[in-house]
Amino acid sequence: MSSRYNRKKLAHAGVATRNIHLGVVPDPVTGAILPPIYQTATYAQEAVGVNKGHTYSRSSNPTVTTLEAKLAGIEYALGAVAFATGLAATTSLIMATMKQGDHLICSDVVFGGTVRLIETIFNRYGISVSYVDASNSANVSGAIQANTKLIFLETPANPTVKLNDIAAITQVAKKHNILVAVDNTYLTGVLQRPLELGADIVLYSTTKYIDGHNATVGGALVSNNQGLLTEFDYVRKNVGNIQSPMDAWLTMQGIKTLELRLIQHSHNAQKVADFLSQHPLVSKVYYPGLANFSQRELAARQHIKGLHGGMMAFDVIGGYDHAVKVMNSVVLCTLAESLGATESIITHPSSMTHVMMSPEQRAAIGIQDGLIRLSVGLETAEDIMADLDQALRS
Ligand SMILES: *Cc1c(COP(=O)(O)O)cnc(C)c1O
């Protein structure tokens, strides 16, 4: 089917059809339904200046190119550039769009590694940054300087699930000719499409939901702007941070079930959030599908299908010590740093992902000592709830 079901038809097909078929046709030599892994460093050239589109695997590789077609497809975008990790994508984004003396606006609650990259690496190269509570769009307008080149948002944000209004912020940015990048790792294009809301670039850690099986690390930049895509490609070729063919191949298998997984992650998360909301040892649950979620109207407007993904956070009664006890008592949930996979993963930001911040810095962005981050997996929801219940009571 896929060889006859061409690109033009796929442009109008549903997300699941696109995720399964985009970029892939049965191998013309063997009929193999899955594409081969082009595990090669270089490519024989027919004559000087004559090649089949690939010359060296630091610049491009056919397996990575296939993955990129699928990644662009998830966002209904013009193109994608795949990197070795999510942070390699962030590094390349800043290198491609900023230079010494430029200013970056970053939302105040983002993946910890993003802050560390900006604070300890890019500050050496004369790039300044303002962190703003972007859940109030006026704070972003207020932080714009004459040399602001890029606004970097993460929504929902890690770990407190705080949202930014992408459409409102991109409207302001356009007036000032500033690019907007959105880290869409939590929801993916299945549940949120930043480019359709006006953003210029979507950033992914494909390590998380895109792969979805804890098998690889990877990253990507997705855009409708050919000039930007060319820049990202150029940085990647020079910096040398392209994704490996094996990781690209594994990641494209994960993409086939992305929609199915995100829907089920959302259903499981809603059940777990409802359960935790009623639990006597839990003081607060942060999940956009709950009636008491503070940005419920924005979630309804910005998220697709009325679903909100698999990420949530909750405060336990008893603070730091009780949170650590819960961490050490779970048996089905895995105590680990990462998210977005079939396995439920539980994290204690104060002692793990956000340990480099002071308690005061953490409190300022809503990370209490008893806050637990939960990536709700695809196990049977009742089993996840039973595990959390016994860990909370232990
Ligand atoms: C994990 C993560 C990253 C970084 O990705 P790596 O693949 O670990 O380099 C960036 N943003 C978010 C939201 C993440 O969860």
Q: What would CATH call the homologous superfamily of the largest domain? A: Type I PLP-dependent aspartate aminotransferase-like (Major domain)
Low-pLDDT segments:
none
What general form does the structure show? globular
| Main β-sheet description | 7 strands, mixed
Number of DSSP-assigned strands: 12
Describe this protein with a few key phrases.
five-stranded mixed sheet; Aspartate Aminotransferase, domain 2; binds pyridoxal-5'-phosphate; 2 domains; alpha/beta; 12 strands; 394 residues; 15% strand
Task: Explain what you see.
- It is a single chain.
- With 394 residues, the protein is α/β, with parallel strands linked by helices.
- The protein has 2 domains: 15-255, Type I PLP-dependent aspartate aminotransferase-like (Major domain) (Aspartate Aminotransferase, domain 2, 3-Layer(aba) Sandwich); 258-393, Alpha-Beta Complex (Aspartate Aminotransferase, domain 1), CATH 3.90.1150.
- It contains 15 helices and 12 strands.
- A 7-stranded mixed β-sheet has the order 1-7-6-5-4-2-3, with helices on both faces. Strands 8-9-12-11-10 form a 5-stranded mixed β-sheet.
- Strand 5, helix 8 and strand 6 form a beta-alpha-beta unit.
- Helix 2 runs antiparallel to helix 3.
- The longest helix is centred in the last third of the chain and has 20 residues, at 258-277.
- It is globular, with a radius of gyration of 21 Å.
- The protein starts with 6 loop residues before the first helix and ends with a helix.
- It binds pyridoxal-5'-phosphate.
- Pyridoxal-5'-phosphate binds next to helix 4.
- Pyridoxal-5'-phosphate (PLP) binds at residues 85-87, 111, 113, 154, 158, 183, 185, 205, 207-208, 217, 219, 339.
